[in-house]
Amino acid sequence: MHAEHDLRERIVAAELARADLHFFARWMFMQRRGFRWQRAPHHRLICDALTRVFRGDVTRLIINIPPRYSKTELAVVNFIAWSLGQCPDAEFIHASYSATLAANNSAAVRAMLQHEEYRRIFPGVRLADEARAHWTTTAGGVMYATGAAGTITGFGAGKMRDSFGGAIIIDDPHKADEARSDVIRHGVIDWFQNTIESRKNDPARTPIVVIMQRLHEQDLAGWLLAGGNGEHWEHLCLPVWRDDGTPLWPEKHSAGDLRRMEAASPYIFAGQYRQRPAPPEGGIFKPGMLEIVDAVPAGAMWCRGWDLGSTTDGDWSAGGKLGKLPDGRYIIGDMQRERFGPDDRDALLRNTAARDGITVRISIPQDPGQAGKTQVLALSRMLAGYAVHSSPETGDKVTRAEPLASQVNVGNVLMLRGSWNDALIEEMRTFPNGAWDDQIDALSRAFAQLIGDVDQTPSGVQAPGL
Question: Which three-class secondary structure state does DSSP give residue 6?
Answer without folding.
Answer: helix
